[in-house]
Amino acid sequence: MIRDQGITSKIWRFAIWALAILFVLNLLAVIAAVVVNSFATRWLGTWLPAGWTTRWYFSAWKEFQLSSVVLVTFEIVFTVVIVSGILGVTTAYALARRDFPGKRLVVLLFLLPLLIPPLTYGIPLATVLYQLGLGGTFWGVVLINIVPSLPFVVLVMIPFIEQIDPRIEAAARVFGAGTTSLFLRILLPLLLPGMLAALLLVLVRTIAMFELTFLIAGPTTQTLVVSLYYAVFASGVRAGQSIDAMAVVYMVTTLFWLVLALQFVNPTQIVARAKHQSSH
Question: pTM of the full predicted structure?
Fold first, then answer.
């Protein structure tokens, strides 16, 4: 009986590893195909392209006006990051330091945008923004992206704030520290790793946020991911290599910020902190 269980366990481990390896290989193959095709002069029915060129990147940059798209993308993303950071850190501090009736309900309401599909609240929210005259505008895109970004900052920052002993703040106030001085000299150095982690992850999330941005963006407020969608599905004949070149630009941009974010935060550590706090 024990031997049969051991064999079954080995089979399960082998199957799980085989599926994981197959998934990774399939993902790498898709990415490799896109990257290779973006440098190909012609690639039909062969293992490798007939030749190599970088002209598709120059063509995509000009055809899809990537300079303005990238600029708009980072203007929107950094605005979302700044606003979400200010509001999110303040809200997280209040929730971490104050106990009041209905606190759990308030936290749940904050986390709802992370728990439900974006289109569930995105469509009615976009309708309201259009009625307010913000449809297709810069601030319309910013506001709709703040809705899931703000709860994300709150979720990440609460465990970091709860790790700071309140007695440190009390001691600083006893010695005459005001609110501004307390934040800049005491709290900010302690919270900086968590803030960097939260804001960098918000940045990556906003760059990749398609559904909400697509609902509200106009011709001059499209982010890179929305422009990529239009490049693929809009009417007209476009070279596949140019579209793949645009996709590579998007992948590299997102990957750069994701790798940078992971230098400051380990997602498993955030989950472990959250579990530790919930167990108390």
Answer: 0.78
